[in-house]
Amino acid sequence: MEQVKDEKQRVAGWSVMAAILLTGGKLLVGLLTGSLGILSEALHSGLDLVAAVITWFAVRISDKPPDKDHPYGHGKIENLSALIESLLLLITCGWIIYEATSRLISGQTHLEVTLWSYLVVGVSIIIDISRSRALMRVARKHNSQALEADALHFSTDIWSSAVVLLGLICADFGYYLADSVAALGVALIVIFVTVRLGRRAVDALLDKAPEGIQQKIEQILNANPQVIAFHDLRVRTAGADYFVDVTIHVDRSLGIGEAHGVSDRLEALIRSQVKRCVVQVHTEPDDT
Predict the structure, then answer these.
(1) Global pTM?
(2) 253 vs 120, which has greater pLDDT?
(3) Domain 2-205 falls in which CATH fold?
Protein backbone atom coordinates (compact mmCIF):
# COMPACT_ATOMS: atom_id res chain seq x y z
CA MET A 1 0.00 0.00 0.00
CA GLU A 2 2.86 2.40 0.79
CA GLN A 3 4.35 1.80 -2.67
CA VAL A 4 0.99 2.62 -4.28
CA LYS A 5 0.66 5.77 -2.19
CA ASP A 6 4.19 6.91 -3.06
CA GLU A 7 3.66 6.39 -6.79
CA LYS A 8 0.39 8.32 -6.78
CA GLN A 9 1.88 11.19 -4.77
CA ARG A 10 4.96 11.33 -6.99
CA VAL A 11 3.04 11.60 -10.26
CA ALA A 12 0.67 14.16 -8.69
CA GLY A 13 3.65 16.20 -7.46
CA TRP A 14 5.24 16.29 -10.90
CA SER A 15 1.92 17.49 -12.31
CA VAL A 16 1.98 20.44 -9.90
CA MET A 17 5.48 21.37 -11.09
CA ALA A 18 4.45 21.07 -14.75
CA ALA A 19 1.37 23.24 -14.15
CA ILE A 20 3.51 25.95 -12.51
CA LEU A 21 5.87 25.99 -15.50
CA LEU A 22 3.09 26.10 -18.07
CA THR A 23 1.04 28.76 -16.27
CA GLY A 24 4.01 31.10 -15.86
CA GLY A 25 5.20 30.71 -19.44
CA LYS A 26 1.77 31.18 -21.03
CA LEU A 27 0.92 34.18 -18.85
CA LEU A 28 4.19 35.95 -19.68
CA VAL A 29 3.93 35.38 -23.45
CA GLY A 30 0.20 36.16 -23.46
CA LEU A 31 0.76 39.54 -21.78
CA LEU A 32 3.66 40.39 -24.10
CA THR A 33 1.76 39.52 -27.30
CA GLY A 34 -1.81 40.37 -26.30
CA SER A 35 -3.02 36.99 -27.56
CA LEU A 36 -6.38 36.12 -26.04
CA GLY A 37 -5.86 32.51 -27.10
CA ILE A 38 -2.62 32.27 -25.10
CA LEU A 39 -4.08 34.26 -22.16
CA SER A 40 -7.07 31.91 -22.09
CA GLU A 41 -4.61 29.02 -22.09
CA ALA A 42 -2.73 30.70 -19.20
CA LEU A 43 -5.94 30.95 -17.18
CA HIS A 44 -6.78 27.37 -18.09
CA SER A 45 -3.31 26.26 -16.93
CA GLY A 46 -3.69 28.39 -13.79
CA LEU A 47 -6.82 26.54 -12.83
CA ASP A 48 -5.06 23.32 -13.81
CA LEU A 49 -2.44 24.30 -11.24
CA VAL A 50 -5.13 24.70 -8.58
CA ALA A 51 -6.63 21.38 -9.67
CA ALA A 52 -3.21 19.68 -9.58
CA VAL A 53 -2.64 20.93 -6.03
CA ILE A 54 -6.10 19.68 -5.02
CA THR A 55 -5.30 16.31 -6.62
CA TRP A 56 -1.99 16.13 -4.78
CA PHE A 57 -3.74 16.66 -1.44
CA ALA A 58 -6.54 14.26 -2.43
CA VAL A 59 -4.23 11.34 -3.18
CA ARG A 60 -2.38 11.97 0.08
CA ILE A 61 -5.62 11.68 2.04
CA SER A 62 -7.53 9.06 0.02
CA ASP A 63 -5.27 6.11 0.85
CA LYS A 64 -5.47 6.64 4.61
CA PRO A 65 -6.87 3.51 6.28
CA PRO A 66 -10.42 3.50 7.70
CA ASP A 67 -10.87 4.93 11.18
CA LYS A 68 -13.65 5.34 13.75
CA ASP A 69 -15.15 8.37 11.98
CA HIS A 70 -14.61 7.03 8.43
CA PRO A 71 -15.32 3.28 8.48
CA TYR A 72 -15.37 3.15 4.66
CA GLY A 73 -12.01 4.90 4.39
CA HIS A 74 -11.20 8.29 2.86
CA GLY A 75 -11.53 7.43 -0.84
CA LYS A 76 -14.46 9.80 -1.49
CA ILE A 77 -12.01 12.70 -1.29
CA GLU A 78 -10.82 11.69 -4.77
CA ASN A 79 -14.35 11.93 -6.15
CA LEU A 80 -14.86 15.28 -4.43
CA SER A 81 -11.56 16.48 -5.89
CA ALA A 82 -12.72 15.57 -9.39
CA LEU A 83 -15.98 17.49 -8.87
CA ILE A 84 -14.12 20.61 -7.68
CA GLU A 85 -11.87 20.42 -10.73
CA SER A 86 -14.95 20.30 -12.95
CA LEU A 87 -16.35 23.45 -11.35
CA LEU A 88 -13.03 25.25 -11.80
CA LEU A 89 -13.00 24.36 -15.47
CA LEU A 90 -16.53 25.69 -15.94
CA ILE A 91 -15.46 29.02 -14.41
CA THR A 92 -12.61 29.12 -16.91
CA CYS A 93 -14.97 28.53 -19.81
CA GLY A 94 -17.25 31.35 -18.70
CA TRP A 95 -14.39 33.87 -18.70
CA ILE A 96 -12.98 32.69 -22.04
CA ILE A 97 -16.36 32.85 -23.79
CA TYR A 98 -17.04 36.34 -22.38
CA GLU A 99 -13.67 37.76 -23.44
CA ALA A 100 -13.66 36.14 -26.88
CA THR A 101 -17.21 37.30 -27.63
CA SER A 102 -16.41 40.84 -26.46
CA ARG A 103 -13.40 41.04 -28.77
CA LEU A 104 -15.31 39.69 -31.74
CA ILE A 105 -18.14 42.19 -31.20
CA SER A 106 -15.83 45.18 -30.63
CA GLY A 107 -13.45 44.24 -33.42
CA GLN A 108 -10.41 44.70 -31.14
CA THR A 109 -8.71 41.51 -32.21
CA HIS A 110 -5.23 42.70 -33.23
CA LEU A 111 -2.31 40.93 -31.58
CA GLU A 112 1.42 40.55 -32.02
CA VAL A 113 2.57 37.07 -32.99
CA THR A 114 6.20 36.33 -32.16
CA LEU A 115 8.49 33.33 -32.03
CA TRP A 116 7.79 33.13 -28.30
CA SER A 117 4.10 32.61 -29.05
CA TYR A 118 4.84 29.48 -31.04
CA LEU A 119 7.50 28.33 -28.60
CA VAL A 120 5.32 28.46 -25.49
CA VAL A 121 2.44 26.66 -27.22
CA GLY A 122 4.76 24.00 -28.65
CA VAL A 123 6.46 23.36 -25.31
CA SER A 124 3.02 23.25 -23.67
CA ILE A 125 1.83 20.52 -26.03
CA ILE A 126 4.94 18.40 -25.38
CA ILE A 127 4.64 18.72 -21.57
CA ASP A 128 0.89 18.08 -21.66
CA ILE A 129 1.33 14.87 -23.67
CA SER A 130 3.98 13.64 -21.23
CA ARG A 131 2.00 14.45 -18.09
CA SER A 132 -1.37 13.19 -19.36
CA ARG A 133 0.14 9.82 -20.30
CA ALA A 134 1.94 9.46 -16.96
CA LEU A 135 -1.15 10.44 -14.97
CA MET A 136 -3.49 8.19 -16.94
CA ARG A 137 -1.12 5.22 -16.61
CA VAL A 138 -1.02 5.54 -12.81
CA ALA A 139 -4.75 6.37 -12.63
CA ARG A 140 -5.69 3.16 -14.46
CA LYS A 141 -3.15 1.13 -12.54
CA HIS A 142 -4.56 2.21 -9.16
CA ASN A 143 -8.16 3.09 -10.16
CA SER A 144 -7.72 6.72 -9.05
CA GLN A 145 -10.44 9.11 -10.20
CA ALA A 146 -8.51 12.13 -8.88
CA LEU A 147 -5.47 11.28 -11.02
CA GLU A 148 -7.72 10.48 -13.97
CA ALA A 149 -9.33 13.91 -13.61
CA ASP A 150 -5.88 15.50 -13.58
CA ALA A 151 -4.95 13.49 -16.67
CA LEU A 152 -8.07 14.76 -18.43
CA HIS A 153 -7.02 18.32 -17.56
CA PHE A 154 -3.66 17.85 -19.25
CA SER A 155 -5.14 15.99 -22.24
CA THR A 156 -7.65 18.83 -22.65
CA ASP A 157 -4.71 21.23 -22.71
CA ILE A 158 -3.24 19.28 -25.64
CA TRP A 159 -6.31 19.89 -27.79
CA SER A 160 -6.85 23.45 -26.64
CA SER A 161 -3.18 24.32 -27.27
CA ALA A 162 -3.51 22.86 -30.76
CA VAL A 163 -6.53 25.11 -31.37
CA VAL A 164 -4.57 28.14 -30.13
CA LEU A 165 -1.64 27.19 -32.37
CA LEU A 166 -3.98 27.18 -35.35
CA GLY A 167 -5.24 30.62 -34.30
CA LEU A 168 -1.69 31.96 -34.11
CA ILE A 169 -0.85 30.66 -37.57
CA CYS A 170 -3.96 32.34 -39.00
CA ALA A 171 -3.16 35.59 -37.15
CA ASP A 172 0.36 35.49 -38.58
CA PHE A 173 -1.24 35.77 -42.02
CA GLY A 174 -3.44 38.68 -40.94
CA TYR A 175 -6.56 36.78 -39.89
CA TYR A 176 -6.70 38.21 -36.36
CA LEU A 177 -10.24 37.04 -35.73
CA ALA A 178 -8.85 33.51 -35.64
CA ASP A 179 -7.32 34.09 -32.18
CA SER A 180 -10.68 34.86 -30.56
CA VAL A 181 -12.31 32.03 -32.49
CA ALA A 182 -9.53 29.75 -31.23
CA ALA A 183 -10.28 30.88 -27.68
CA LEU A 184 -13.94 29.91 -28.18
CA GLY A 185 -12.71 26.56 -29.48
CA VAL A 186 -10.73 26.09 -26.26
CA ALA A 187 -13.87 26.80 -24.23
CA LEU A 188 -15.97 24.29 -26.16
CA ILE A 189 -13.34 21.57 -25.74
CA VAL A 190 -13.07 22.25 -22.01
CA ILE A 191 -16.86 22.25 -21.54
CA PHE A 192 -17.17 18.87 -23.27
CA VAL A 193 -14.55 17.24 -21.03
CA THR A 194 -15.80 19.00 -17.89
CA VAL A 195 -19.38 17.78 -18.27
CA ARG A 196 -18.19 14.18 -18.66
CA LEU A 197 -15.79 14.45 -15.73
CA GLY A 198 -18.30 16.17 -13.46
CA ARG A 199 -21.00 13.62 -14.19
CA ARG A 200 -18.71 10.74 -13.25
CA ALA A 201 -17.71 12.48 -10.01
CA VAL A 202 -21.35 13.10 -9.06
CA ASP A 203 -22.23 9.47 -9.87
CA ALA A 204 -19.50 8.27 -7.50
CA LEU A 205 -20.53 10.67 -4.73
CA LEU A 206 -24.16 9.51 -5.07
CA ASP A 207 -23.05 5.85 -4.96
CA LYS A 208 -24.20 4.98 -8.46
CA ALA A 209 -23.25 1.42 -9.34
CA PRO A 210 -19.97 1.54 -11.30
CA GLU A 211 -20.41 0.56 -14.93
CA GLY A 212 -19.36 -3.01 -15.70
CA ILE A 213 -18.44 -4.05 -12.14
CA GLN A 214 -21.93 -5.11 -11.07
CA GLN A 215 -22.36 -7.17 -14.25
CA LYS A 216 -19.00 -8.88 -13.64
CA ILE A 217 -20.04 -9.85 -10.10
CA GLU A 218 -23.38 -11.14 -11.34
CA GLN A 219 -21.55 -13.39 -13.79
CA ILE A 220 -19.38 -14.77 -10.96
CA LEU A 221 -22.44 -15.51 -8.84
CA ASN A 222 -24.38 -17.10 -11.70
CA ALA A 223 -21.41 -19.33 -12.57
CA ASN A 224 -21.18 -20.79 -9.04
CA PRO A 225 -23.30 -23.98 -8.80
CA GLN A 226 -23.62 -23.65 -5.02
CA VAL A 227 -25.41 -20.30 -5.34
CA ILE A 228 -29.06 -21.14 -5.94
CA ALA A 229 -30.13 -17.49 -6.05
CA PHE A 230 -28.91 -14.08 -4.93
CA HIS A 231 -30.43 -10.67 -4.21
CA ASP A 232 -29.65 -7.24 -2.75
CA LEU A 233 -26.42 -6.96 -4.74
CA ARG A 234 -25.02 -3.49 -4.01
CA VAL A 235 -21.79 -2.05 -5.42
CA ARG A 236 -20.44 1.39 -4.59
CA THR A 237 -17.12 3.18 -5.00
CA ALA A 238 -15.05 5.38 -2.72
CA GLY A 239 -12.03 6.66 -4.58
CA ALA A 240 -10.07 3.65 -5.79
CA ASP A 241 -11.99 1.13 -3.64
CA TYR A 242 -15.12 -0.87 -4.39
CA PHE A 243 -17.53 -2.01 -1.71
CA VAL A 244 -19.72 -5.03 -2.51
CA ASP A 245 -22.60 -6.48 -0.49
CA VAL A 246 -24.78 -9.37 -1.61
CA THR A 247 -27.07 -12.01 -0.13
CA ILE A 248 -26.91 -15.54 -1.59
CA HIS A 249 -29.19 -18.57 -1.15
CA VAL A 250 -27.56 -21.98 -0.66
CA ASP A 251 -28.87 -25.50 -0.14
CA ARG A 252 -30.56 -25.55 3.28
CA SER A 253 -29.01 -28.97 4.00
CA LEU A 254 -25.56 -27.37 4.26
CA GLY A 255 -24.16 -26.90 7.74
CA ILE A 256 -23.21 -23.49 9.11
CA GLY A 257 -19.52 -24.13 8.45
CA GLU A 258 -20.15 -25.31 4.88
CA ALA A 259 -22.37 -22.31 4.08
CA HIS A 260 -19.75 -20.01 5.56
CA GLY A 261 -17.15 -21.69 3.36
CA VAL A 262 -19.22 -20.91 0.26
CA SER A 263 -19.29 -17.23 1.30
CA ASP A 264 -15.54 -17.17 1.93
CA ARG A 265 -14.72 -18.68 -1.46
CA LEU A 266 -17.03 -16.27 -3.26
CA GLU A 267 -15.52 -13.28 -1.46
CA ALA A 268 -12.01 -14.41 -2.39
CA LEU A 269 -13.06 -14.98 -6.02
CA ILE A 270 -14.64 -11.54 -6.34
CA ARG A 271 -11.59 -9.89 -4.76
CA SER A 272 -9.37 -11.66 -7.30
CA GLN A 273 -11.49 -10.33 -10.20
CA VAL A 274 -12.02 -6.78 -8.90
CA LYS A 275 -8.98 -4.92 -7.57
CA ARG A 276 -9.19 -3.07 -4.24
CA CYS A 277 -12.55 -4.60 -3.44
CA VAL A 278 -14.12 -5.05 0.01
CA VAL A 279 -16.74 -7.83 -0.20
CA GLN A 280 -19.35 -9.09 2.24
CA VAL A 281 -21.44 -12.10 1.21
CA HIS A 282 -24.39 -12.94 3.46
CA THR A 283 -25.71 -16.51 3.27
CA GLU A 284 -29.34 -17.66 3.67
CA PRO A 285 -30.90 -21.15 3.35
CA ASP A 286 -32.93 -21.55 0.18
CA ASP A 287 -36.69 -22.00 0.69
CA THR A 288 -37.66 -23.04 -2.85
Answers:
(1) 0.66
(2) 253
(3) Alpha-lytic protease prodomain-like (1.20.1510)
